Amino acid sequence: MKKTTIVLVIIGIIIVGVGAYLLMQRSPITTLNEGDTTGNSQPQDQTNTQKPKDDGKTVIGTSVEKRDITAYHYGTGDTELLFVGSIHGGYEWNTALVAYELMDYLEVSPEIIPGNVKVTVIPVLNPDGLNKVVGTTSKFSPASVSSSNDVVVSGRFNANGVDLNRNFDCDWQATGVWQNKTVSGGSKAFSEPESESFKNYIEANNPAAVVVWYSAAGGVFASECGNGIPPATRTLRNTFATASGYKAYDSFDFYETTGDMVNWLAKQNIPAVSVLLSNHQDTEWSKNQAGVEALLKYYAK
């Protein structure tokens, strides 16, 4: 009799435990929002329609000194417009700042980007050269620029002493020209990690158009690599130039340029232009903002 009672008690305990477990499984349980470490057990807000400031970023490679080369993405469309700054590092430090100004603008005004467009900004293609002159590769103040002209000039090149805008596969030569100076174009086209990283990004993503900032001549220059200016490139140049007020040029003829990045883009059948700021200090943001907005409207068609 005692054994029977004990067995019944055990069975009852098991039944109660199983029932309690099943009730718990059926009860609604609130979970922490992703990334919430505060312990607040509020359900996720499924009605939040606020657009993210930055749709993401991609580290496309690293420099000679192992600094990241980062592409920042805004918008989610299939038509990618790519903007590039600071290929000449700290020598053209204002081209990095105008790229950072574009990023700031897109973060506070994401609605300016058409639904079919994605804007990508690579603010610093030569991070070692920029760091040498301003001490960082992030956004900086002009007050951070080195007071030594020799340092600023040396910041044009990467850490191997190569002019990256002489290292691309369009009329490449090992020895190039900058103004009246001889510069290194590298041991071969794409010998440098910075230019190779850019090449790999272009080949993987095939952007619809590319704008590269330089300084200083004050104009928008078309690109070509031996076959004349493609119609799409001419349209890109004219659209940006008309809106910005910069003069439009067919080519950069102040001195010979070999291994030029923008001309290499033309060789890849990608419309591309060089936008040269008017000096080495100002970003001329209002002019460039107008040019960018005109391109966004054009590619929204």
Protein traits:
single chain, 301 residues, alpha/beta, Aminopeptidase, eight-stranded mixed sheet, two-stranded antiparallel ribbon, 8 helices, 10 strands, 35% helix, disordered N terminus
Which helices and strands occur, and which strands form pairs?
Elements: H1 2-26, E1 56-62, E2 68-74, E3 79-84, H2 93-108, E4 117-122, H3 127-134, H4 149-154, E5 175-178, E6 181-184, H5 193-205, E7 209-215, E8 219-221, H6 231-244, E9 247-249, H7 261-267, E10 272-277, H8 285-299
Helix pairs in contact: 6-8
Can you describe this structure?
By secondary structure, the chain is of the alpha/beta class. It has a single domain (about 55-300), classed as Aminopeptidase. About 35% of the residues lie in helices and about 20% in strands. The chain contains 8 helices and 10 strands. It has helices spanning about 1-25, 95-110, 125-135, 150-155, 195-205, 230-245, 260-265, 285-300; strands at about 55-60, 70-75, 80-85, 115-120, 175-180, 180-185, 210-215, 220, 245-250, 270-275. The chain has an 8-stranded mixed beta sheet with strand order 1-2-4-3-7-10-8-9, sandwiched between helices. Strand 8, helix 6 (about 230-245) and strand 9 (about 245-250) form a beta-alpha-beta unit. Helix 6 (about 230-245) packs across helix 8. The protein is globular, with a radius of gyration of 27 Å. The N and C termini lie far apart (about 90 Å). About 40% of the residues are buried. Residues about 1-55 have low confidence and may be disordered.
